[in-house]
Structure to design on (322 residues):
């Protein structure tokens, strides 16, 4: 059995080359970036990872590459495909054999699915996997907002260790945290609501797309809350708010990938039919990253001669010193 985690899990994006083939070198570099920022868990092949576009062979390559690069530094939970339970279980078996610590299971995008059918679907998965499992409650995806009673039921399924809650009802989140067993972990899946979910919901952490871009800030926010550094918590919260809004520009996950590219973590563009972020949206995102302190502002034209002169003075001084 794998490892559990508290704190920030990153549902990492999948890097692609210009021809839309997998960029496995870029994936390794992204993993290093996240681990160096002290992320608490890595979750490849989820919604952020454009898993809907991955073939089985590509899924296997992503799993193998991430597990190899992480090398036990943090837990790895694989995002599983949601539409076919047969394919899901095949990928789950491959991931378990490869050394994954667990899985994140998303609700299938079936608008006519009932709550009873969704719970039964989750139960069938739990009976057929042999690793830790986090289930996702996402009312926006299929119109079902699982009740606290339903989540209590799910918490008793084999291998189920927690839930990623995308509801914005903090009373419900705190109810889950207090009424379900102490071993059952509740993570928020909404970046905008993460600070409030910590303060009011009692969550164990977050599994949010912005962890690709600012893992260090999110980890620090979580730690600041736990050690009651109120001023620092509020300072980071203020920085994160416009960033979370900016990451909604374009079609998901275009803004996540654009942000990483701007920050020098080159992971390419989304696969079609998703377009990369361009024009005004890209400029808006750049300005948000600058305002939040994540990106340096561009050098102004009137500053360029000054910088050039400084370089020349430094060079001449070195010559004279000789």
């Amino acid at each position: 059995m794998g490892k559990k985690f508290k704190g920030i899990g990153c549902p990492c994006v999948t890097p692609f080359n210009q021809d839309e083939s997998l960029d496995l070198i870029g994936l390794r570099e992204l993993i290093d970036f996240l681990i160096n920022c002290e992320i608490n868990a890595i979750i490849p092949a989820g919604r952020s990872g454009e898993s809907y576009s991955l073939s089985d062979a590509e899924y296997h390559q992503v799993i193998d590459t991430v597990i190899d690069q992480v090398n036990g530094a943090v837990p790895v939970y694989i995002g599983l495909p949601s539409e076919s339970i047969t394919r899901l279980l095949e990928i789950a078996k491959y991931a378990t054999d490869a050394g994954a610590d667990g899985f994140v299971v998303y609700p299938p995008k079936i608008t006519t699915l009932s709550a009873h059918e969704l719970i039964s679907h989750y139960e069938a998965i739990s009976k057929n996997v042999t690793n830790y499992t986090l289930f996702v409650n996402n009312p926006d995806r299929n119109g079902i907002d699982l009740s606290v009673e339903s989540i209590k039921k799910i918490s008793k399924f084999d291998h189920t260790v927690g839930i990623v809650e995308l509801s914005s009802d903090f009373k419900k989140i705190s109810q889950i945290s207090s009424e379900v067993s102490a071993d059952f972990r509740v993570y928020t899946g909404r970046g905008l609501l993460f600070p409030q979910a910590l303060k009011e919901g009692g969550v164990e952490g977050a599994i949010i797309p912005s962890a690709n871009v600012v893992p260090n800030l999110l980890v620090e926010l979580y730690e600041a809350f736990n050690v009651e550094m109120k001023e620092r918590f509020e300072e980071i919260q203020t920085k994160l708010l416009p960033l979370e809004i900016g990451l909604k520009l374009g079609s998901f996950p275009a803004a996540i990938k654009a942000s990483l590219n701007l920050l020098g973590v080159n992971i390419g563009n989304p696969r079609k039919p998703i377009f990369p972020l361009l024009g005004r949206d890209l400029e808006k995102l750049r300005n948000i990253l600058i305002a939040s302190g994540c990106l340096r502002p561009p050098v102004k034209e009137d500053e360029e001669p000054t910088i050039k002169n400084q370089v020349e003075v430094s060079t001449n001084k070195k010559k004279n010193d000789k």
